[in-house]
Design a protein that fits this description.
The complex is a heterodimer of chains A (167) and B (402). Chain A has 167 residues and is of the alpha/beta class. Chain A has helices at residues 6-17, 40-49, 111-122; strands spanning 22-25, 31-35, 57-65, 73-81, 86-94, 100-102, 125-127. Chain A is 20% helix and 25% strand. Chain B starts with 15 loop residues before the first strand and ends with a helix. Classes of the chains: A alpha/beta (167), B mainly alpha (402).
């Protein structure tokens, strides 16, 4: 299906960014690599505007929390080159205490709500975002619920205590 | 998007603030838009979403894979089988399970029926919003027949929870096949009548032609997918671009529009229903050529054994226990799998750490991504146009909020 191979994409990126592209892999055929938050916009912009690669479509932005790692929040971008039929996944690892990353809304308008959602659930601060406020959760929520330390159920609930069930 | 200049020089507000929603008969779900109105024209708008947010991604981190299927039902509840199969295929891709061809074709039949039921609701409602109730009534009867087919196959109608990881829970029975055949015979005249009612209808065209046109560049920048992207002229369809479930074996066209306005989206959805019918006919013919009685892959590690065997057979009991208790071996990996949902690219980004439950599961929900352009594109529009624009975007509240 794909008109260009993952190797071609990786070579072009490597020629342009060198060491900034790290840990490349291909789980289930999708090129995956890591970049730092300083170079993410340059990399995305290169992928989008390169006349051969043409990653014109931002499929998704989300995040993953890996507690215990030094850089514990991974922001994950899925980009798609519709003309070439190739997808790529880009990860940026951030410090949990200060998760800031430049916004991708400068490249795609569609990044707006995706970033708001990521902020809402993980607390990632997208710098330069036009309106970074909560989107699905209530406005006065104080936690970032998709982080792993946040329990699924409210620990203060009293109706599920064991003694009600004779345990 | 020509925004009329309203300059508030005096300090006196010259616009009206209008709350469209959260519950309003014309919004088909819980959507709130706070609009600034200058007479009947919208000056600016802000969408508020999240009214039925149910934290599916968080819940999914605490559930074994097969228990996540009912969560996917409740995203796009107008075409839940597509969500179910999309999730099943994601897990099967992760586990490397190869489906028998017959299962692929059976899935294709159900997914295309789901697409028809979703599109006919959307187009029927569009008719209602432009003031014609009859088309909706004609089509609604056909959706009932599709739901009867679901019912015959899985017992449920709306939130179907259809199939399992590894195939279907039971074979289609003769009644189900008879109902599918009856549907593809009975539906074309109804759809044709519906098209005759609307396609060249003066009132309908006046209300829809040229309303909310979108260029392909803007649509791609907003990450639009699905019928509304194709209405702008971009021929992107996951079924063709990255075929799953043996879609590459089927002969069908991807209709595309030119202007991306409400009328184009309407015409395109009708045309997609015709194409879906073509696919179902081909799939039925293909199913008949396959060996009978095959409805799941031979993967006892992941596919629940029949209940009688669990009670009478040691092997089956062990497998049942292992699957239910989540003791199955799964790879430590990550993957993205997408299917063409009724509203666009429905993606599942799954990170697995080999445990009972996904480490992280993210749903790429087309309604959520498609809807974010609604407020910007409403600027300068008449309120009545904004209403039919919303119904032709076909935003489903469950998929929007997840």
């Amino acid at each position: 299906m794909a008109k260009i191979s993952n190797q071609t994409v990786l070579q072009k990126l490597g020629a342009h960014f060198g060491e900034k592209i790290s840990v490349p892999s291909e789980p289930y055929g999708m090129l995956t690599f890591e970049v730092t938050k300083e170079s993410i916009i340059d990399v995305l912009s290169f992928l989008k505007n390169d006349p051969e690669l043409k990653f014109n479509f931002l499929t998704d932005i989300t995040a993953v929390h890996y507690p215990g790692q030094p850089l514990s929040i991974a922001v994950v971008y899925h980009v798609h080159s519709m003309t070439n039929g190739v997808r790529s996944r880009i990860k940026v690892y951030l410090d949990e205490a200060n998760p800031t990353i430049p916004t991708a809304t400068v490249l795609w308008d569609g990044a707006n709500w995706m970033e708001r959602e990521t902020y809402d659930f993980f607390g990632v601060q997208f710098e330069g975002h036009p309106n970074l406020v909560r989107i699905l959760n209530v406005d006065d929520m104080t936690v970032f619920p998709m982080r792993k330390e946040f329990p699924l159920e409210d620990p203060n609930r009293v109706d599920k205590k064991d003694f009600y069930f004779g345990r | 998007m020509n925004q009329p200049a309203i300059v508030d020089v005096s300090g006196n507000k010259e616009t009206t603030t209008l709350n469209l929603g959260p519950t309003h008969p014309a919004t088909h779900g819980v959507f709130q838009n706070v609009l600034e109105m200058d007479g009947e024209r919208i000056v600016s708008g802000v969408s508020t979403i999240g009214y039925i947010h149910r934290a599916f991604e968080k819940i999914a981190e605490h559930r074994p894979f097969y228990q996540i299927t009912p969560l996917t039902d409740r995203m796009n509840y107008c075409s839940s089988p597509i969500n179910n199969f999309g999730w099943h295929m994601t897990v099967e891709k992760m586990l490397g399970i190869q489906m028998p061809k017959r299962v692929d074709y059976m899935r294709v039949i159900i997914m295309e029926l789901a697409r028809i039921s979703d599109h006919l609701i959307c187009n029927g409602i569009l008719g209602v919003d432009t003031g014609a109730y009859s088309g909706f009534l004609y089509l609604m009867e056909q959706r009932e027949h599709i739901y009867e087919i679901y019912e015959e196959i899985c017992g449920a109608r709306l939130t179907t929870n259809i199939g399992r990881i590894g195939g279907f829970e039971r074979d289609f029975n003769d009644i189900a096949f008879a109902k599918i055949k009856k549907f593809i015979k009975d539906f074309p005249p109804v759809l044709r009548e519906f098209e005759t009612l609307f396609d060249r209808n003066r009132i309908f065209m006046d209300r829809t032609v040229g309303v909310a046109p979108v260029t392909p560049e803007v649509a791609l920048s907003y990450s639009w997918t699905g019928p509304i992207l194709r209405a702008t002229g971009v021929d992107y369809d996951v079924r063709v671009a990255e075929p799953y479930s043996s879609y590459e074996e089927f002969d069908f066209d991807i209709p595309v529009g030119t202007t991306g306005d409400v009328y184009d989206r309407y015409i395109l959805r009708n045309e997609e229903m015709w194409q879906s019918l073509r696919i179902i006919e081909q799939a039925l013919a293909k199913v008949e050529k396959e060996p009978k009685g095959v409805f799941h892959a031979n993967v006892p590690d992941f596919y629940l054994p029949p209940k009688e065997e669990v009670y009478n057979n040691m092997e089956a009991l062990i497998y049942h226990f292992k699957i239910v208790m989540g003791e199955i071996e799964t790879p430590k990996t990550e993957l993205y799998h997408c299917v063409e949902g009724a509203n666009g690219e429905l993606g599942f980004y799954l990170i697995n750490d080999g445990g009972r439950t996904p480490y992280r599961l993210h749903f790429r929900r087309p309604s959520f991504i498609n809807y974010q352009m609604y407020a910007p594109m409403s600027r300068g529009m008449l309120l009545s146009d904004a209403i039919i624009n919303m119904s032709s975007l076909n935003v489903i509240a469950g998929e929007l909020d997840a």
